[in-house]
Amino acid sequence: MTRFLVDGMLGRLARWMRLLGLDTAWPGQAADPDLVAQAVAEDRLLLTRDRRLAMRRAVRGRVLVIRSEKWREQLAQLLAEIPLAPDIKPLSRCSRCNAALLPAVAADLPCQPPPYVVQTQPAFSRCPGCGRAYWPGTHRGHIAAEVVSRAARAMYL
């Protein structure tokens, strides 16, 4: 499974990668030496728009320079350039902190979902890192449509 480290410029891409279930660290506005050290220490592929950062010797062979400023095009480039199909497990990671989600029952969640959600949704998840609660909803279809659209577009880049 490919693990990623995304630099501060690519926060929205990081969130979408997590929604796809990709292990994506995003330390925010970390300094370049810290990003390099983390990529090496955690054996992560560094995604950046900073060409100077990408040229550092320590990350050669473990860096992908993202060309676009638009997150949809960034996602399309990622899907086109790296074979991720086996790694994609949608909605299996926390979109905020990247922790793998754990199965949960509604009664055990830190915040109670609305009664309609409890009655209509069979499965819930919780984040062991930040405590967020997740359940399948209409956003699943939106996420799937976005990813399929990006993957299709990626073939024509």
Structure description:
The chain has 157 residues and is of the alpha/beta class. The protein folds into 2 domains: 4-91 and 144-154; 102-135, no CATH class. Helix content is 36%, strand content 13%. It contains 6 helices and 7 strands; from the N terminus they run E-H-E-H-E-H-E-H-E-H-E-E-H. It has helices at residues 11-19, 32-41, 51-54, 71-81, 115-120, 139-154; strands at residues 4-6, 24-25, 45-48, 63-65, 102-104, 124-126, 133-134. The strands form 2 sheets. A 4-stranded parallel beta sheet has the order 2-1-3-4, sandwiched between helices. The chain is elongated. The model has no long low-confidence stretch (mean pLDDT 88).
Shape: elongated
Q: In terms of per-residue confidence, which ranges show pLDDT below 50 for 5 or more consecutive residues? A: none
Helix and strand sequence: EHEHEHEHEHEEH
Q: In percent, how much strand structure appears in the residues?
A: 5-15%
Mean pLDDT: 88
- Into which percent range does the helicity of residues fall? 25-40%
Major sheet description: 4 strands, parallel
| Number of H/I helices | 6
Nearest-angstrom radius of gyration?
17 Å
Number of strands: 7
Label the structural class. Answer: alpha/beta
Our count of domains comes out at 2
Oligomer: single chain
What is the end-to-end distance?
Answer: 25 Å
* Order of strands, widest sheet: 2-1-3-4
